[in-house]
Amino acid sequence: VNTQWISWSGLVEGRPARWLHPRSEDEIAQAIGHTAAAGGRIAVSGSGHSFAPLVSTERSTLLSLRGYAGVESIDHEAMQVTVRSGTTLRALNELLLRAGLALPNQTAIDAQTIGGVVATASHGGGTRYGSLSQHVVGARVVTADGSVRQIAETDAEIDALRLNLGCLGVVSTLRLSVVPSFTLRKVIDVRRVSDLAAVMEHVRGQEFGGMYWYPHTGIVRVWHAQQRPASHRTQQPAGRTPPHWLLRRSMAPAPLARHVNRAIAALGGRHSDRTLPSDRAIVGALAPRQQALEYAVPADVATGMARDLIDLVDRRRLRVAAPIEFRFTAADTAWLSPAYGRQACYVNVASYLDAGRDWATPFRQIADLLAAHGGRTHWAKVHWFDRVKLAGQYPRWNDFQRARTAFDRNGLFLNDYLRALFVPDSVRVPDLPASDRCPQAGR
Ligand SMILES: Cc1cc2nc3c(=O)[nH]c(=O)nc-3n(C[C@H](O)[C@H](O)[C@H](O)COP(=O)(O)OP(=O)(O)OC[C@H]3O[C@@H](n4cnc5c(N)ncnc54)[C@H](O)[C@@H]3O)c2cc1C
After folding, report:
1. Is pLDDT at 371 greater than 50 in this prediction?
2. Residue 81: which of 46, 125, 128, 132 has the closest Cα?
3. Whose CA is nearest to atom 45 of ligand 1?
4. Does the CB atom of residue 123 touch ligand 1 within 6 A?
5. CA angle in degrees (0–180, nearest 5) for 241-244-246
6. What pTM does this model have?
């Protein structure tokens, strides 16, 4: 079948040689067996919400896991749930709520599959929690020879699985620890950049929280949330969600963007205080189509980093999307997590694509600044690190590579992009061009 696969951003695309939608672990194993025997490669996709070319499909068999969804079992005593990897966060949140349960934390959207979330250690905001991968206590993985490997919480490989980039094999089910369902009282306030140090310390101290800065203005919006019992609800009206056309205008030249960004910030209102189910309190509206860069710096340097970043964007009048988001997380144990071994402050910078702007030039300057502050890239987003730089950032890099080759000796699950990052002497990842297109590395 010569049908095109395209990511949510539209920046990663390809024509897989075969496109399969397995409905069972057996079908996954069969697809792997046939492809391996024919000398092909396997690409695995969830919802396609990654920005980096993790799912490059050229000449591959593409396994789309979206149809392999649902909760397999719930263990109320152990507070654990076993879920198929193609289940979206939205579906999982609904299924859990019906059982009186919830994930302990959330990402900013809920369209991703749990398989994709775990493969990239996707995270929320709040220093009590690491990425959502930290809730994984077990998994079943269909490996390159078609056999199923069970990984338990006590196995060392669990920390390879918790950020696996699809290169250990196809994760069929995941066992996650969950909590009783709860609501969150979420408070949002407008603050000034001149209070940056106090604001950052405040956000860092929250169980759930984050900060948005509106480029070329002195305005930041800060949110924090605290747990309430499941029955609590308040329905005070919140501010309005800015329309996509207005958000896209934040990409205008700086003097105009300043006015636009003030208007975007004002739409949210000066103060909001609402109590909502935990997922609805955190998950937001889907933003316009965009390219995204996100790095995690050590939490201890976050305020200095934020000050330097704000200064860079303002001084050079960089054309990036509003807002820029800052979130703190606890340290992760996942060997390749940007938050491995350290409390982190994630910074997300977007560029709205339909505004037709060059995203790469401002991103490159921002990436250099974040790297200088010890930033590690979110693996689902764009970056300019090569294999040597990445290897130097992760104390457990070699452990991950050993696990990867133990699971997949011949690189059945490696695409050109990952091969260039993981395998010595393979083709170099070319620089990203200053255009909208995100190349499949090594082509
Ligand atoms: C608008 C938007 C908002 C976002 N917000 C956040 C956020 O708040 N926090 C955050 O950390 N990230 C965020 N992300 C990034 C997102 O969480 C990740 O890109 C995530 O990987 C997407 O999941 P997916 O199901 O779309 O996976 P895909 O993008 O389809 O795949 C991602 C990786 O997972 C692998 N994979 C998927 N399923 C399996 C499986 N079953 N077995 C093995 N490998 C598998 C793929 O091979 C690939 O390597 C956001 C992205 C967008 C577009």
Report:
1. yes
2. 132
3. 166
4. yes
5. 85
6. 0.95
